[in-house]
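Agenda item 2: zinc ion complex prediction
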Amino acid sequence: MTMALTTHDQTGLWAPTGTNVGPQPRMHRPGHPAALGAVSVSDGSDFANPFAVGAHTEDERQAALTEYAIWLAGQPHQIAATRALGGHDLSCTCALGENTCHRNVLLDIANPPHNAFAAEGLAMGLTLRRPWASLLLVPETLGGKTIENRTWPTDYRGPVLIYGGTRIDNAGVAAAKRAGLDTSWHVDQQGWLGAAMLVDVHRSRGCCRPWGQPKVRENAPVYHWVFTHPQRLADRTWGRGFVGLRPTSWSVLVRRRLLKTVATSQKGANR
Ligand SMILES: [Zn+2]
Ligand SMILES: [Zn+2]
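Presented output:
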């Protein structure tokens, strides 16, 4: 099997995002107001993550994040309200750097990059050949793929937005057939398809069957990238493929047309 093996680790080429420029994630203590100049998006606010209610474990919080992001992408009114947060710091009770906080989703949608293809944003993106990209978003219980095989590891853990590239991998087509999945549908899935959580990366020991590759492929060590909590967009969005794992704005999951709308009442209130 030749799964999508990429030898380029470009993660080191990109500067850390969200440093000094533009609206920032902020934190406030539960029961306290948002930090000065920031808008609260924590529980009880109009921008709370409804899926995070009762999410206590890390696993539950990871599930709540991808579920929320994909849900939000399909809510025109909520997107318009979020766009009105543009230019503001957003504050939540989650620790800064907490990669399951929905604050980053809102920040990216409120402040989408001027260049929709830019490598900037608070999530990470990954391009996979077809149909691997789509197979990664099938829940494991339905026979979906949970492991992405790469010849390079990454230290990054957190949300990854999944892009189905232009190229088709015949090994993926065969794998989809073996798994009893609708092969032609999955092969068709090109563009931004959804999100999943990257929770572990380890050197292959011949583990993680049936999707994990053996230890070595073409003289290179194989790493298993373990994904959980896949969520698929109802309508995929258009984009452009790229090499490696790179910073990506959550706004790529939202249709361009929706990003142009701003809720006027909120816009006034926030100025
Ligand atoms: Zn939070
Ligand atoms: Zn493994």
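Discussion summary: Residues 202, 204, 207-208, 212, 224 surround zinc ion (ligand 2) (CB under 6 Å).
Owner for follow-up: CH.
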